[in-house]
Amino acid sequence: MSDDIHLLYLLAALVLGYLLGSIPFGVIFTRMAGLGDIRKVGSGNIGATNVLRTGRRGLAAATLIGDALKGTAAVVIARYWADDLGAVAALGAFLGHLFPVWLGFKGGKGVATFLGVLLGLQPLAALAFAVIWMGLALTTRYSSLSALIASAASPVVLWLLGEPQMAGVAFVLAALLWWKHSDNIARLLDGTEGRIGQKG
């Protein structure tokens, strides 16, 4: 494959990932359920944790699954073309979720999509993320803290699994996730962060 053709494939994978990642399932599902705009509820975030604040667990679960699987789909489709395109599609999907063009580039914080791209890149790393997140969420009931620690651990897990390139991608995604959670970090530090299932 020539360099020019490979560059086109890289761009296609990035665009594919972005378009899939930018599908705002939280907004779509809550509107379909007649709940209005999820961006006007709770934290204003479009992700599953905020959807849960509506009291509709089924919608929150659907949002979590949708936001995760769009990341997985982007990686799987791109890797069908060439294995090294998966990481590019993962980055595109994550950026799409964080900055969706349909919502004025104001999207979610990326936790479910992070998990989804991990599932596409390396299922064992996704399992490790899920176990860490679940364990911390059950003990602390802080979704944000659980996600921050699980995402920070992911590059290390991938490195230990012998996937240095994927570890590098996960490091970039984790850095973006931490940046998007800057307000949550501030609230965690001053003790005002909302807990899982808390309304308002």
Descriptive overview:
There is one protein chain. The protein is mainly α and 200 residues long. Helix content is 72%, strand content 0%. The chain has helices at 3-21, 25-32, 48-52, 57-81, 85-98, 111-121, 123-140, 143-160, 164-180, 182-190. Helix 1 runs antiparallel to helix 4 and helix 2 (25-32) packs across helix 4. It is globular.
Core attributes:
200 residues; 0% strand; globular; mainly alpha
Task: Write a concise synopsis of the structure shown.
With 200 residues, the chain is mainly alpha-helical. Helix content is 72%, strand content 0%. The longest helix has 25 residues, at 57-81.
Low-confidence stretches: none
Envelope shape: globular
What is the alpha-carbon Rg in Å?
16 Å
Number of beta strands: 0
Fraction of residues in helix: over 70%
The proportion of residues in beta strands is under 5%
Total count of helical runs of at least 4 residues: 10
By helix and strand content, what is the structural category?
A: mainly alpha
